[in-house]
Amino acid sequence: MLISELAELTGVSARALRHYEDCGLLTPARSGSGYRVYTESDVTRVAQIRTMISAGLGTSAIRRYLDCVRTGDHGTFLEMCPDLRAELDSLARRLDARQAELREKRSRLDRLTSAG
Questions:
Q1: Which terminal residue of the chain, N or C, has fewer Cβ atoms less than 10 Å from its own Cβ?
Q2: DSSP-assigned beta bridge partners for residue 69
Q3: CATH class of 1-79
Q4: Percent of the residues in the chain that have a pLDDT greater than 90, as a whole number
Q5: Which stretches make up the HTH merR-type domain (predicted)?
Q6: What is the C-alpha radius of gyration for the chain, rounded to an integer number of angstroms?
Q7: How far apart are CA 32 and CA 27, in angstroms?
Q8: CA distance 77 to 51
């Protein structure tokens, strides 16, 4: 299938698909005329990439751990290894810190608006 077909099937723009290729996340074949040619397995791969992005992982981390992603009857999941666990724990700590910061800002805002 061509990039436009993959984009339609996955709901991901052709621009994003080309970005995934530039980052080494997708490796389409090329037709004799140079067009990118994708397979059904690329549909699954794009879903895996999108799942990891939505969880907060960047493309460099996705490239390192994409081989750990599995898709089964119950969706997409990661097969854990120590390095991946450390990366995910670090991301979780950063998210927790950001949430605490936002809660504190919200509290300050509430105090400002209720002071009058």
A1: C
A2: 78
A3: mainly alpha
A4: 71
A5: 1-68
A6: 19
A7: 16
A8: 9
Q: How confident is the model at residue 81 (pLDDT cuts 50, 70, 90)?
A: confident
- Quickly count: other Cβ atoms within 10 Å of residue 88's Cβ: 17
Q: Tokens in use for 35?
A: 């067009």
3-state secondary structure of 71: strand
Q: CA geometry: angle at 16 spanning 42 and 33, to 5°?
A: 65
In degrees rounded to 5, what are phi and psi of residue 12? -110, 135
* CA–CA gap between residue 116 and residue 114 (Å, rounded): 6
Q: How far apart are CA 7 and CA 17, in angstroms?
A: 7
CB-based burial, 11-39: b 16+ in 10 Å, e otherwise: ebeeebbeebeeeebbebeeeeeeebebe
Three-state SS for 93? Answer: helix
| Distance of alpha carbon 73 from alpha carbon 105, whole angstroms | 41
For the chain, domain boundaries: 1-79, 80-116
